[in-house]
Write a structure and sequence with these properties.
It is a single chain. With about 600 residues, the protein is of the alpha+beta class. The chain is built from 21 helices and five strands. The longest helix has about 100 residues. Helices cover about 75% and strands about 5% of the residues. The N terminus is likely disordered.
């Protein structure tokens, strides 16, 4: 999971009220639109400025349309400038600077806040100075200048200590948590997270509670306490799920999927990964709709923009007495407006063209990377196939050599010994001949057993289940363990290569259980589930440390065969508690 401390990009929202006249519900929004036209007719610049400010806040908080919100703020600022309303001018400039941060224009935002800082220092507004300090932290933090980010945080703390602003203090705690997290001071970050959650509960700000819980979840994730992280993330979701198209919720879904993946709860991990993908698609679709609406809005309001430009200049025009100068200025304004729109659309066209080229390049890179991975997988599978085929060919050759050469030779020797014994008249030599004959019988039997282990003839003649039974019967039930073999719904016709691999896997596991685990009882189960054969083998032997011994040759051979068949293997073993193997093998339709 690509997390680090960029889990939330928290911008400090210091909203100065626009007055009770301009409420922010949908009904009032429609009323504000109508009031805007009335204010234009009456040339009431103060009311126009306040209405545009209210519309900007509505677009930001309700519609999340930051582009249109920024445009409304720009218009409000122009009317406040006409009215020389310094307080509201600075408030509008502050909100516009916030929007610059949201759009990643950090240098421009920094310059804007520097100018605002001079003004608020002159009037000694500690609340705004503390807020600007937190904005500096965001800028430096996003630019990965951690030292300057810490300085900005400390500077903001000085102002916060002299005022009583719970909202700003919670924002300060959030940014402090992010700072301590990125420098890996998790204990301090955890203390601050707990304090942040307590204060956000007191303030009854659900969004702040969600942020603080998610940040504490990040800390638990970094310290590998995944269960605690899951608890905090799910608590955070209880608030975030009420917010549509929330990027914070998107990040929480991704982190929950990562946590459950680390805990090997793949069902839950898959569930949250699906939630992540669905929400991501919804956000992308919402952004597309918003982009289309913005384009439509710009075209529909082009003429209104021209009229607004004229209204903005009317106060200056009123001082002019020459009608010809008025007309010249009007033509100039219209021409400049058209030129600006032309430049805007040209720049936008080329920007979209560049973005499209980047997207195509990224997609090509992904396709190339996927192709390389597929080739690597294919090469690995071919290598495994060649290795396994080579092993089987060599086993077959050795088995034939043992059976045809050494087995035949031993049989010939036995016949000659029997012939000598039958012709030997010395009674004292008969026991020696009988002993030699028994040894030769044992040797012939051992050669035959080794030959069968190397190349199981029953597999090609009779099939998988009979050959496994034959394998089990060859083990000495008197001195060896009791082997219980159960099978359910196993097809008689299975691909020869797959059958041989399954046989070799079972043979290797049984040999290990008998020779190394010293098991007294072994349970072997085979059953069919869909297109898979499930192999389950348990023994009551001495067990082993699965992590430490996983690279042993026998287990590596088993794993290689399972991987070759695109299967899966789970090993559960503890010293003194026996061993369990659960293997899934795909045999096709």
């Amino acid at each position: 999971m690509i997390r680090h401390t960029t889990f939330f990009i928290f911008f400090i929202l210091i909203n100065i009220p626009f007055g009770n006249l301009y409420a922010q519900d949908d009904t009032s929004h429609e009323a504000n639109i109508k009031a805007l036209n009335e204010a234009r007719k009456n040339k009431d610049y103060k009311k126009l400025a306040d209405l545009y400010s209210a519309l900007a806040k509505y677009e930001e908080e309700t519609n999340r349309n930051y582009e249109r919100s920024f445009e409304y703020l720009r218009r409000a600022l122009e009317y406040y400038n006409l009215e020389k309303d310094t307080v509201n001018i600075k408030d509008a400039e502050y909100d516009m600077a916030r929007h610059l941060i949201e759009n990643g224009m950090y240098n421009e935002a920094f310059d804007a806040f520097k100018e605002l800082e001079k003004y608020y220092l002159e009037i000694d507004d500690k609340q705004k100075l503390a807020a600007i300090g937190l904005q500096y932290f965001t800028i430096y933090f996003e630019k990965l200048d951690i030292n300057k980010a810490k300085d900005a945080l400390d500077k903001s703390k000085v102002y916060l200590d002299s005022i009583n602003d719970q909202t700003l203090h919670i924002r300060y705690l959030i940014e402090s948590i992010r700072y301590h997290e990125i420098i890996r001071e998790y204990d301090e970050a955890l203390v601050l997270s707990n304090l942040c959650i307590e204060e956000s509960l007191l303030s009854e700000n659900n969004l702040d509670q969600a942020k603080c819980l998610a940040l504490r979840g990040n800390i638990s994730f970094e310290t590998e306490d995944y269960l605690v992280a899951i608890y905090d993330y799910e608590q955070s979701l209880s608030y975030l799920e009420k917010i549509p198209y929330s990027k914070n919720r998107l990040e929480v879904y991704g982190n929950l999927a990562e946590c459950y993946g680390r805990l090997e709860d793949y069902e839950k991990a898959y569930e949250y990964r699906i939630n992540y993908a669905d929400l991501q698609d919804s956000i992308l679709n919402e952004n597309r709709v918003m982009a289309v609406n913005n384009i439509t809005y710009k075209f529909e309001t082009r003429q209104k923009n021209a009229e607004i430009k004229l209204l903005e200049k009317e106060k200056a025009f009123a001082q002019e007495s020459n009608l010809q100068q008025k007309r010249a200025l009007t033509v100039l304004v219209v021409a400049m407006t058209g030129l600006l729109f032309g430049i805007y659309y040209i720049v936008r066209f080329y920007r979209e063209k560049i973005n499209t080229a980047k997207i195509i390049e990224e997609q090509n890179n992904k396709i190339n990377k996927q192709t390389i991975n597929e080739l690597q997988d294919k090469i690995q599978i071919n290598s495994m196939y060649s290795m396994i085929q080579g092993q089987e060919i060599e086993r077959e050759r050795i088995a034939k050599d043992l059976h045809d050469s050494l087995g035949g030779l031993l049989s010939t020797i036995k016949l000659q010994v029997d012939n000598i014994r039958n012709n030997e008249s010395n009674v004292e030599m008969i026991p020696a001949f009988q002993n030699a004959t028994q040894l030769l019988d044992t040797a012939v039997s051992e050669v035959r057993s080794i030959s069968q282990n190397l190349q199981p003839g029953a597999l090609s003649r009779l099939g998988l289940i009979p050959s496994i039974k034959d394998l089990i019967n060859r083990y000495d039930s008197k001195t060896g363990p009791e082997i219980i073999f159960q099978h359910f719904d196993i097809p008689t016709k299975i691909d020869q290569t797959i059958s041989l691999s399954i046989y070799r896997i079972i043979q290797e596991i049984l040999n290990n259980a008998i020779k190394h685990a010293k098991a007294n009882e072994i349970l072997l189960q085979l059953n069919k589930e869909g297109n898979e054969i499930v192999i389950h083998i348990e023994d009551d032997g001495v067990g082993f440390d699965a992590k430490r011994n996983y690279q042993s040759m026998g287990l590596k051979n088993i794993k290689s065969r399972v991987n070759y068949m695109k299967g899966s293997i789970e090993i559960d073993s503890r010293i003194g508690e026996g061993t369990s193997f659960l293997i899934h093998v795909n045999i096709g339709a």
